Amino acid sequence: MSLLSSSEASEKIPLNFEADKLDYYDEKEIIEGRGNVELSYKGINLKADYVWFDLKTHDLLAKGNVVLSEKSQEFHAEELKYNLKDELMEARKITSFQKPWYMKGKKLKKVSPDEYLLEGGEFTTCNLSPPHYRFTAKRIKVYPEIRLWAYNTFFYAGEIPLMYLPVYRRSLKDVPSGFVMQPGYSSERGAFILSHYNWYLSEKFNGRWYLDFFNKAGWGKGFDVHFASGTGSGYLYGYHIDERESPTEEPPRERWKLHFRHHQKITEDIREITRLDKLSDENFRRDYLNDEVLKFLSRSELEKHRPEGSLSITMNKPGYTSSIYVRKRVNSFLEVTENLPRISFDLVERGIPATSLYYDFDTDFTYLHVSPAGEEVMQMKVCPQLSHKTSLGWLRAKPTIGADGFWYGENELGEKNIFQGTYEANCALTLANGIWKIFDTPGWKKIKKVRHLTLPIVTYCYTPEPTIEKEHIYNFCDCIGNEEELIKVELRNSIEGKTESGEKFRMVDLNLRSFYDRLDEGEEWQNVYADLRINSMRNISWWTLANYNPHTEKFESLDSDFKIVKEKWRTSIGTRFYEPGGEKNTFDLTGKIAGNLGTKWKIDLQGRYDLNGENFKVRRVTLHRDLHCWTAQLFWQSERKDEEEETRIFLAFKIKGVGAEIKTPFIDTF
Predict the structure, then answer these.
(1) Phi-psi region of 8 (alpha: psi -120 to 50; beta: other; left: phi over 0)
(2) Per-residue pLDDT at 174
(3) How is the chain split among helix, strand and coil, in percent rounded to 5?
(4) Cα dist. 502→437, 447, 494, 536 in Å?
(5) Where do the structural domains in the chain lie, given as residue ranges?
(6) What is the rounded CA–CA span in Å between residue 443 and residue 262?
(7) Nearest-CA neighbor of 498 among 565, 433, 452, 432?
(8) Which end of the chain is more exposed for a tag (fewer CB within 10 A), N or C?
(9) Which CATH superfamily is domain 2-124 in?
């Protein structure tokens, strides 16, 4: 049964009221509903066993299994009072979910449209009863989807109180959990504890404080800050440690690192990038790489933290790109070729109207200074180019002629205004559509057709001797090399499958390339490079990258990986082979197995074995345990460095549901 208020009342308050039994008292303008009551008004939805509503005052009373939904919030209570006009609410024995927190309390008041006050409350991210952990507080101010403030707060693990906080502030956004500690052991550093505290003011301003202890080195302190404003963003990281080789060593060795990146969109076309990496010594990155990986970054990301100080401003237009780049030496232990500055202009290749010709033009001017040696010179480069795209039946050709010209303020002999120049002529030939053939596969279950495509590409390149040799040009300058006459050969192969639904699936890619050097007498054919990738619809793949020397009839490098990826498991095995110029080779076998051990455990095993030295270079074991509202990670690694073996082990716990989990540091195969 449903009932709308009288026409006069409905103009004041558009209300929808439904219940198993409804009573309307006309004189008092009161509605009373019993049994499966549902009420809706301007985005507010209410369900209860009993509801009493005054059409004059807009006061509402609900009892029994009360569920209130408004503005993406949901509250459960035994009894609730609500004034729909003033948007003020009071509820008893309340429970609610404010992502990611489960909350409950004796009394809840809505004191403004965007603020609630919970008295005698507690909150947790654990959805068990009783929870594994919880916070209790006398008063909790909740600003939905923004933050909460808790006063006179206790932290409980089970029923054991572990911590008291007079005031506790917590963001209700998806942000990292506050305090994280990772104890561990290293044969090089001894026992250690890596800890950090995540602070969060907004999406545009947040970061961490670091405090680490190494038994054999001492205390390390650090911070990082992520910030953004308008169209710019940046990152600042600093770390300092007074390092001792033994606990009693005096004085300690001061070591530190400062890393800064900033990107600014000045206009729609102009970008600025600033880089700064300053270190106390050249070995800091190597010595603290594993610690920084465990804390917050991957190895590949940390490799980008190369000691550098630079500023670039780039303008990208539809027809050209221009930039100013400044590079300055900021670390005294490095020799750096400084650019003070480099100004460049690159024209995008474009056609000449009413012709089939295309032109391109690149130039840059640089003031080079080698610090601390003090050598300096001005350099200018000009590279114009003209090309022609044409088709000769089934053959496509692109002949190109270009020039390379350099001007130097002086050379090593002190001679002024030095010019070096040459030209380059090349022509690329390829088939218009390649060579292809389609095969039916009636015996296959999923793939009904297969297409094999072969695309040969042949490019002839000739560059004569430059006007002057590079003998007396400073070795830190860009310059033109010797005469070259090359024939580059590339063969691209691909096999593509097509399912009944029309979906295409790349099965095989094989690219072969080499070049013929007419001026290299006796060894004209150079190394052959092969890149093979095979994929199956059963999540099995094979990748091989080979470099073969036809004169020694040996592989100089051969890397491969075989992978099987299933729903709960992934496995890979591969090789890493390297033998440059007939020197002692490196031949390693790599392997990785990762997956689930039941519903609670995950394991990640990795290893790299030296087949020549007959020993392991790296062994890693990572165990993950789901503790319902926590995750635990146990990590062990043994790594051989300079004939010595270093062992590391650490243990970390993380509350789930309070932000992104800790990045697993060693997820990449070697």
Answers:
(1) alpha
(2) 61
(3) 5, 65, 30
(4) 17, 10, 18, 17
(5) 2-124, 177-307
(6) 57
(7) 452
(8) N
(9) Lipopolysaccharide (LPS) transport protein A like domain (2.60.450.10)
